[in-house]
Amino acid sequence: MDGTLVDTEPYWMACEHELVTSHGGTWTQEDAHSIVGFDLLDAAAVIRSRGGVDMEPTAIVEHLLDGVIARVRERMPWRPGARRLLHELRQLDVPCALVTMSWTRLVDAVVEQLDPGTFEAVVTGDAVANGKPHPEPYLTAAARLGVAPTDCVAIEDSPTGVASASAAGCVVLAVPNLVGIDRRPGVVLMPSLRKVHPDDLGTLIASTPLVAPPAEDAPTPARGSRAAARRRATIGG
């Protein structure tokens, strides 16, 4: 979500900088970039140790969320092409899920600005035991949609998110934002979502070789089921 659907990474970085400097520490752009896509508690642990912030990780996360949500309420920084693509997918009845390491209260502030029913499943960082780059978030999303991960295109903007989606068995459409993403098998790079349409996602599933076998616990759509009939799903990171 952060950096893929909405360009909130600058909001996070500003809040991180304000917090660290208020505790007498230093927080560089390199520091901020190093935790893009991280599970929020993992990111908070880095901020605590590297930035000298004398707060528990959960308190750090809640403090940062307050600042980011306040900024989102003032201006929602949609990424180019993202809302249009989601609208087109909804019109075609393609199931979509949102997979993000942001916590529920920030996700709610973003999702409420979209058409009702845009996402059939939402997986947040405070609802999984293992955050990205672990595959659990994407495996959870695919299971909630009732599709196999291999029938999903994951749209990601960070190396951490790409690693999570790839490990789950998804084809990945990588749209780098603030952090570069290296080319690798199973990952297709695009500069933005401006020219990406639903048919392009179907083509990716059909033409991109998988780099990992489907996870053993991934659901297998039953013959004749809704998931088997649609065969495509989109998961936004």
Write structural notes for this entry:
The chain folds into 2 domains: 9-74, DNA polymerase, domain 1 (Orthogonal Bundle); 82-236, Rossmann fold (3-Layer(aba) Sandwich). 43% of the residues lie in helices and 10% in strands. It is built from 10 helices and 6 strands. A 6-stranded parallel β-sheet has the order 2-1-6-3-4-5, sandwiched between helices. Helix 3 (40-51) packs across helix 4 (57-74). The longest helix is centred in the N-terminal third of the chain and has 18 residues, at 57-74. The termini are close together. The model is unreliable at 213-231 (pLDDT under 50).
Order of helices and strands: HHHHHEHEHEHEEHHE
Number of helices: 10
In one word, what is the shape? globular
CATH H-level superfamily of the largest domain: HAD superfamily/HAD-like
Name the helicity range: 40-55%
Low-confidence stretches: 213-231
The biggest sheet amounts to: 6 strands, parallel
Task: Please name the CATH architecture of the largest domain.
Answer: 3-Layer(aba) Sandwich
Question: Approximately how much beta-strand content do the residues carry?
Answer: 5-15%
The figure for the number of domains is 2
CATH topology of the largest domain, by name, is Rossmann fold
Tell me the distance between the termini.
5 Å
Average pLDDT: 89
State the name of the first-level CATH class of the largest domain: Alpha Beta
Structural class: alpha/beta
| Strand segment tally | 6
| Cα radius of gyration in angstroms | 17 Å
